[in-house]
Amino acid sequence: MKRTEKAEKNNRDWFRGQLFAEDSLDPEFEDIARNFLCGDVLAHGTLADPQRALIILAALAASQTLNAIPRYTLAALDIGAKAEEIKEALYHCTPYIGLEKVRSALEEVNEAFQKAGITYPLAGQSTVTEDTRFEKGLAVQQTIGGEDNIRAMREAAPQDLKHIQDYLSAYCFGDFYTRGTLDLKMRELITFCAICCLGGCEPQAKAHVEANLRVGNTRQTLIEAVTQCLPFIGFPRTLNAIACIDAVTKDQ
Questions:
Q1: Percent of the chain whose pLDDT exceeds 90
Q2: Percentage of the chain with pLDDT > 70?
Q3: Angle at CA 99, nearest 5°, toward 94 and 101?
Q4: What is the pTM for the complete model shown?
Q5: How far apart are CA 146 and CA 140, in angstroms?
Q6: Which of 203, 210, 88, 100 is nearest to 145 (CA)?
């Protein structure tokens, strides 16, 4: 199938043929954009379409490309992502991109859900209580980061930074990683992509390459996920992300 044929098919499947409008004042830009996104990127690799959609939404939230989020939310629903999965993908970005960025993205998602006839409230996904969030979060953190590594990191923290380590365990991992709907592999993939989309977080990106490998994702899966982010973050941050993947996996 030719690239333009793939582009037409994916534009129809994902966006009902309407994302790249015929009456645009920049038709040449729209043509280039449609063919690259729909004919190249969405046609590349083996990720399932709902996975692609969740990664794209995380990329849009991290880069605060808010006006595009309703369109991509409707596309996610059209290609099989569940409403709960979409919400969880954005909730999960919170410790990495900041709570107000996620709140802004969720406002756009909620607008799209209303247009799609999604009924509220969605099923709750929390699995922790105020009394268990630290303990359960620390357990997940050790699973992802390695028990010895996390213990050493916590023990090495100066007294005036121990609260940050507690926040990591209880907030980042307890409040978010323990939630339902998305498994650890998908959550770690979203984490890595969100961090890479921010830029300037290469040490943390490398750490989460290791974490992804630890939970069962592969180098190829990471590359495919970053490829889905490329149209929205550009080549510099994408190449930085690939360099992080290479730094951890080149000898494996």
A1: 92
A2: 97
A3: 95
A4: 0.95
A5: 10
A6: 210
